[in-house]
Amino acid sequence: MENRFNFTKTAVTGLPLPDAGKRATYYDETVPKLALRVTAAGTKTFYIVKRVGTGMAWLKLGVFPDMTVDNARKEAENKLGLFAGGDNPAETRRALKAEPTLAEFFKEYGTRHGQKKKSWRDDQQRYRDYLEKPLAARKLSAITRESIGRILSDMERDGKSGATVNNVRALASGLFGKAIEWSYLTDNPVKGIKTRKTNKRDRFLQADELPRFFASVGQEPNETIRDYFLLSLLTGARRANVMAMRWNQINLAEGLWRIPDTKNGTPQNVTLSPEAAAILTTRKETADGAFVFPGDGKSGHLIEPKKGWQRIFDRDELAQLAARIEAADKAFPVVEGEALTDALERARKTAKRLKLDTEGTRIDPLRIHDLRRTLGSWQAKQGASLAIIGKSLNHKSQQATAIYARLDLDPVRASVNQATAAMMEAGGMKKSAEVKPIRKARA
Question: Distance between CA atoms of 332 and 275, rounded to whole angstroms?
């Protein structure tokens, strides 16, 4: 059928459906600027189509058959008459605008919705990393299920985890969901794209890794980065909460950190072990500002510690390689002013030239979030119950929430202190000491 014909109830009802992920557009011969978009799901929507500048604007009128052909024509002529006479309402004037590109829409999305989300910073990063380059310049209606599916498939091909792929899928779905809500689109191109299988991560610092980790962290020249990672480990708090930690949330006398708002929507009392309190006490002596970990950005606090995280493992690998080189009776001199990355590359080349076994010289990949898991794992090693671990890490579970509510902080404090002491001992940071057993919580 031609894409322009005389709209009638019978003709519109009998229109064929496009292939999955596609849309078909038809124009009325009677009112040339009246269009009908048909989706693969069978939705048929009337629009006014009007040129605005160099682009085409689409103003949604209604969905067939709730809006009849006659009513669609009357509404189209009414709206077009208002525009022609310059007497258009502000609401209609805002709606009748050129269809945005994804880049333009993402900016609007951020202003109207994204900045309210706790995950907005992560959404911006995902957009920049995966959606911006292939899709930013495209009009929203030109982005199809196939184009989204190709991006996600390419991510899998490149070795991205199922969780990462699903996060990008969720971002795209949320973007197009808002585009529908704000009358830019009529259907979501992400619909029908399946989520990927994810594997629960169980990585944490092992006993033989802790001495190396503590030694490398202790050599970190940036005290803010050093203390950030130590407190992330010793409190088990979420990354964003530690970065935004404020002095007015901390009660050193009682050994408590009160987080008013967490990821799961509930406040949290974090018990501070003596080791964690000692770090905060030292930082407090030279504190200048509201944040424990101040930053130069707009937020006022530390934002991105990834480079510091990389340095920890680069520095440790360098130390391990240097030790093996020297054990082979070969000198590995320190070069004054040499950058860490250059020294590491020099050590790798030297070890390769000497044909040394380098297995285990770099700690297996760890993420910053694994520090949180490390505390919970060491609590479990010391015999803490799942309920105590859940409360100390502020996990939210329908089955366990009632149990958490009946626990006070004493058993949580004992568990955190015991796990902290065990980690510090395993890491060579303190001598073995007898730790009193955890008092069993009363249900």
Answer: 35
